[in-house]
Amino acid sequence: MSLSPLNQPFKIGNLQSRNAVALAPMAGLTDVPFREVAWSLGAGYMVSEMVGSQPQLWDTGKSRQRRVPVRGVTPVAVQIAGTDPAAMAEAARRHVDDGVEVVDINFGCPAKKVCKKAAGSALLGNLPLIGEIVHAVSSAVPVPITAKTRTGLEPGDGLGIAAARLAAEAGAKLIVMHGRSRACRFKGAAEYASVAALKAALPVPVLVNGDINSLQQAKLALRQTGADGIMIGRGAIGQPWLLRELQGGAPLSLAQKWGIILDHVERMHEFYGEFSGLRIARKHISAYLRGFNLNARDALAVDSAQAQLDWLRWSADMALRNAS
Question: Does residue 115 carry a catalytic annotation?
Answer without folding.
Answer: no
